[in-house]
Amino acid sequence: MKITNPGLQSGGARITYHVSRITIMSYDEFLAERIERILQERRVQYHAKKMFGGVCHMVDDKICTGVMRNELLVRIDPVLHEKKLEQPGVSPLDADGGMRGFLMIDPENTDMDEDLRYWVDLALEFNPRAKATRK
Question: Could you tell me which CATH class the domain 25-129 is placed in?
Answer without folding.
Answer: alpha beta
